[in-house]
Amino acid sequence: MVSETKHKWWQETVFYEIYMASFQDSNGDGIGDFRGLTDRLDYLQDLGVNGLWITPFYPSPKVDNGYDVADYFNVDPDFGNLSDFDNFIEQAHARNIKVIIDVVLNHVSTEHLWFKQAVSDRKSKYRDYFFFQDEPNGRESFFGGSAWQKEADGPQVYYHKFAPEQADLNWQNKAVREDMQAVLKFWLDRGVDGFRFDVINFLSCNGVGEENSSDVSGKQIHSHDIDQPGIFECISEICTFVRDYSKDCFLVGEVGHEELSKLVPYQSDDLLDVVFNFNLGSIASFDIGNVHEQLVAMEDRQGGLPTIFFNSHDMPRSMSRLCQNNAAHAAALAALTLTARGVSFLYFGEEIGLADFIPENIHEMRDVQAINHYQLALDEGKTKSQAYGRALKECRDKSRLYMQWNSHKFSGFSSSIPWIGEGAPNSNMPNVEAQINDPDSLLHWYKMLIALRRECPALNLGRYDVLSLDKGLLTFVRRWQNQILHIMINFCDVKYAFNHNPSHEVLASKGLNLGEPDFLLPFGTLITREVQDVC
Question: pTM here?
Answer without folding.
Answer: 0.95
